[in-house]
Every structure is written in structure tokens, then in C-alpha cells.
Amino acid sequence: MRLLLTSQKERYFIEVKENHLYKRSIGFILFFSIMILLVFYISSNCEVEPMVADFPKIIAHRGANDRFNESTISAYKIAANDDVDALEVDLRMTKDGSLVAMHDKTIDRTTNGTGEVSHYNLEEIKEIPTIEVFSNQSTVAVIPTLKEILDTFTDTEHYYIETRLVNDVLAMEESLVQLLNEYDLIEKKLVTIQSFSQDSLERIHELAPEVPLTLLFGKGKFSLKEAKMADYPFIGMEASDVTLKNVNELHRQGKEVHVFFNDLETEKKEQERVKLLNVDGYFTNDIGFTKKILQLE
């Protein structure tokens, strides 16, 4: 009887030990499986997705604003001579409904005048020149209308136009599309329109559904969820919001990423950084530098 009990006890301990070893083996297998999956997940998220665009676009931000007064005919001519992919034109609307090239809501920063563009009629705005200093010399140039820009370049350039609300309401979209159609630029696929306002983009789409649109996000306001859900082929964001995750996620959605640079002091460094992430477009303030890093010179 004692031998039988001893044998049963030994079998019990053996079974417990085997069960323990089995559980440890399963634990090790699960642990290593999780580690492999984790490594795969991390590595897949560290890989840079290829560009959606066939080639990176060089977009002259307000023309060649590093060499002449921004958003003027001369600044756009210099940029065009540099063989950029598009001229970026910010639009504002005057009190009498004319579309002019002006980035800011007011004329304070770029002219010797003050006040909002929408408070002036065209004749008045034409009397207030833009003023800038280059190489210790002042340069003066008139504020151009969009029509004057189109008259200058006609169908020889691609226009990357930004719409804005006028006094917080939609106002310029019909006039813009009508003017672009007068020059057959939409039919010739020479226009891209961008805006921070989805209402403006939706109105443009209603008027000209064939025009490619870019949804812009202000610095620090980028929403990956909103960008992925937006039914637009291009997403514009400030350089500080450009991360591997954001770019990869948008590229997987088939969306191009176009980057603008608010900080001129860090722009070159940021251009080099976002280049490594395969962004699709550069709203550049230094055309020569951008062409250099993209090895286009």
C-alpha cells in the first residue's frame, strides 16, 4: 500500500511538473510571437511610403519672394524663369469685387498703407504699392489683380490658387471660376485650388468638379482623421506637423502631401527633413535651395 501511494504521489508530481513546463512553453511561444509582431509593426511604421506624385512639385510660394516683393508680377516672373511647377497665388477680394494677389487680410505688412483689403475698392488698392527691401535697396511694385497675372502668363504656367472667405462668408468662388474659364485654364488642367475653408472647396467643386483641390491645415491644427476622411486628392500642412505617421497614412490613402513653411529660419532644415519622408510638394520660399536638395539643378 505504501509503495502504491508513493507511486501515485510521484506520478502526481511528474504531471504537475509536466503541466508547469507545458504552460511555460506556451508562455514563451506567446511572448516571442508578440515580440515578433511588435517588431514587425514597428518596422512597418518606420518604413517610408513612396510618394503618391510621380515627382516632387516645386510651388513658388507667393512667387520668388526671396528676391522680389511677394505676390507681384515681377516675383512671379522670376519664379517662372526658375522653371517651377506652379505659381502660388493667394487671393483677396476688394470692396468692389476684384480679385487681387495678397496673402494677408490687411495690407499693413507688405505696403505703406493700413486696413483690410475688403475695405478698399480696386482703384484705391492700386494706389498703394507694395514695398520691400532687398540688398539694402527698397523695391516698389503694385498689387496685381488675378486677371493681370493671367494676362502675363496665360497658359504657360500652372496656377496654385488659394481661396479665402471674404468677411467670413463665401464670395470669391464664382468670380474665380468664371475668370479661369475665360482663359481655358481649367480645361487645360493648369489650375489647382487650395483653401483652409472646406466650404470654399465644396463650392469650387460644385462650380468646377474637374479642378483638383487641396485642403489646408494651419500650423498645429492638423487632424489626421479629418485629412484622411476629406474627399480631396491633396493635403497641405505646415512643416512642423509633418511626421512619418501623418505622411505614411495619407500616402496609403492615395493622397499627396504638400508642405508649407512658416518659419524662414528653419525652412531649409525642415525641407531636408520632410524630403526624407517623401512629401509630394514644397511651397518653397527659396526655389534654388529646393531644386538643389531635390537634385534638379
Structure characterization notes:
One of its GO terms (molecular function) is phosphoric diester hydrolase activity. Keywords: Membrane, Transmembrane, Transmembrane helix. By secondary structure, this protein is α/β, with parallel strands linked by helices. The chain has two domains: 47 residues; 237 residues, TIM Barrel (Alpha-Beta Barrel), CATH 3.20.20.190. 40% of the residues lie in helices and 18% in strands. The protein is built from ten helices and eleven strands. It has an eight-stranded parallel β-barrel, surrounded by five helices. Strands 4-5 form a two-stranded antiparallel ribbon. The protein is globular and about 110 Å long. The chain starts with a helix and ends with a helix. 35% of the residues are buried. About 3% of the residues have low confidence.
Indicate the overall shape. Answer: globular
* Helix/strand/pairing category: alpha/beta
Number of domains: 2
Q: How far is the N terminus from the C terminus?
A: 96 Å
Strands of the widest sheet, in order across it, are 1-2-6-7-8-9-10-11
Order of helices and strands: HEHEEHEEHEHEHEHEHEHEH
State the CATH architecture of the largest domain.
Alpha-Beta Barrel
How much beta, percentage-wise? 15-25%
Name of the CATH class of the largest domain? Alpha Beta
The whole-angstrom Rg is 29 Å
CATH superfamily of the largest domain: Phosphatidylinositol (PI) phosphodiesterase
Given as residue ranges, the uncertain stretches (5+ residues, pLDDT < 50) are: 36-44
Main pleated sheet? 8 strands, parallel, barrel
Q: In the CATH scheme, what's the topology name of the largest domain?
A: TIM Barrel
Overall pLDDT: 91
Q: DSSP helix count? A: 10
**Helix share of residues?**
25-40%
* Count of DSSP strands: 11
Transmembrane segments: 21-42
Keywords: Membrane, Transmembrane, Transmembrane helix
GO molecular function: phosphoric diester hydrolase activity
Organism: Oceanobacillus zhaokaii
